[in-house]
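Encode chain A's predicted structure.
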Amino acid sequence: MKDFEMENKTVETESIPAVILENLTILPGAVIHFDLHKEEAISSLEHAMAEGGRVFLITKRKQESEAAHPEKKLYAIGTVAVIKQITKLPDHVVRILVEGLYRGKLIGLQKKENRYFCADLLKMTDEGSGGLEAGAEIEAMLRQVKDSFRAYMAFHPKLGQNLAKRYDSITDPGRLADEMAMNMPITFEQKQQVLDACDLKERYEILCSILINEVEIAKIRSELVQKLKGRVDKNQKEYLLREQLRYIREELGEDGSLSDADQFEKTLSTLQATEEVKKKIAKEIGRFRNLTGNSSESSVERGYIETLLELPWDKASVDNESMKRAEEILNRDHYGLEKVKERILEFLAVRCLNQKGDSPILCLVGPPGTGKTSVARSVAEALNKKYVRICLGGVRDEAEIRGHRKTYVGAMPGRIITGLRQAGVKNPLMLLDEIDKVSNDYKGDTFSALLEVLDSEQNVRFRDHYVEIPVDLSEVLFIATANTTETIPRPLLDRMEIIEVNSYTQNEKFHIAKEHLLPRELKKNGLSKSMLSIKDSALKAVIAYYTREAGVRGLERKIGDICRKAAREILERREEGKEETQISVTASNLEKYLGKKKFTQEKADRHPKTGIVRGLAWTSVGGETLQIEVNKMPGKGDIDLTGQMGDVMKESAIIAMSYVRSISQEYGVDQKAFKECDFHIHIPEGAVPKDGPSAGITMATAIFSAVTGEKVRGDLAMTGEVTLRGRVLPIGGLKEKLLAAKMAGVTEVLVPFENKKDVEEISEEIREGLTITFVKSMKEVLEHALVNQGRK
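Encoded structure for chain A:
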């Protein structure tokens, strides 16, 4: 041992045998055993035992190359240790037990006798621990290190609680840091960092940093382990439950050998579809097979595959080709409706001749209760087609037609695809009910979505958002119903063939009631013909005095009222012990069952009056008569319009006033009358909105009558629009208007000349009893309407 001068200080140096370690660092205070197998290390060990049993243990760096100088390969700081025990093992391996004494700094390394290493080193002591003034700081360091180690031990319980108790009794921070680092399962590089730190503060910071880092790693590792354990446990539980379920099914004799994916593949093998569709479904089944059984994605995929397998890709029903049978069914179920029946039979004839003919899109337009929906059901029966009804009233979401995207739970196909799925064939009859009541909002334009469905050029490859695979809708027979075409956009209307289902006449209502409604209501109320008889006169009285509608729903309800009251009367007779006799309802005792009459046959006032003219109007529920009244009073030439008129009707009133002023001089009317008088034009029933271009001649006649004082015939009604020059323009809804005039007791109706072709198509039953006069100009209207005819 000799003295060595360093930084103006004299320190002790010594020369002792050295053992170079690989991937191992020994700290002072540590008692540890390890194996040596190199000849140089074993030789150094033998010399150390001969010279007092001390050896210098220094660690080799990992990144230095083999060609470097031996001293550059080693760390600068090592540990001087005393050898406690040596054990020789087979294959020239020596196991030694050593105890670390203190740190040593390598100054030089020599190889003696070309057999072992001898190191010159400086003995290093802990710095920064002297002085009582540092007591508080040392205590803080001790507490912080112990707290960090406890947090570390929470994730490494295998270290044992004995270490924590032993560390609580250590007051030397340097010794505490060395022991903690030696007992922790950290890398030899991290232990070397602690060994290199001779300063206590530096050693404290390094150890705390290692502890904090290890605690964070342990936290993350623990979370990962918990997640992985939960997933494994979940999968294991599912596997066990499935195996148990399979075993139970086998014990019960059920076929539990096939999984859902196997069942799907079995169904796919028998599916009637193209190869493109089958490949897509097979791909989805393969994807489903790799998903977890109870995940949300698995349930979405299962529903998607089931939908694809249930769709009738190439499955079709055989249409009936018997013209005679189809005609019999249509005539059996409906009275009248000749145009509708004729068009259906034409479609059937074309389909029989051309098997690949495009299915038309028929749209039945007419008032409520006229049998539009029941016609579609009868057509389905006549053609032997599956019947699917899709109600579009109030539909405002485009996804209702095209379907939802299948990227979320709860997605479903649109109503068209759902209808095909229910029908089970690709060529059903699909009824699009109330197509005029579809509405739009921020969720998309539903009418535009229907364009693809109803366009024969596009629906060959209709793409639903949910199904994604193109579906052929060209073989579907679409029949739409609507009360009016005014709310249907023109592009959609252009793709449909409009068939008008007009209002029923009283004779048609009578036959419908007798042949269809009465048998149905008797059956519904548990009655038979032997129990209740409703005479023809009673049915006609119900139609004339208790209902006033375009269809027959109200008539059906009235017949139902009669049946219910008759059922009650029959039961009361039974309870009283009276002999059961057939209840007969006639026109004379009808008030007993339905009460007082609600309508009168002669509704029109036949007395001529000034300023009052009867007009005719069309509504979505049939025709109506309108009394237009005009009053003339002193004033300043103002015009008042009341009766909730729409913009079109207001314009008609202004045009009528202008025309009357232009011809007033021809009839001897002073122009001052228009400046010194106010005119009030009113249409009764002000709560009901009124609009439409068909009241022009009626208003002009009423204004002219009020101005001239001429009376207008009370048995006459008129309809038509007027121009500024007095021409009479054609109108629509003529059948409903004539029916309304006939029911109101009108004997003559003025109709625009250009509507002559429409009158010729109206049945003789409606025209019977009515004098229909065609007019071209307003002067002709005045000649027929005014009582004093021929006056100019």
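Residues 6-10, 129-133 have pLDDT under 50 and may be disordered.
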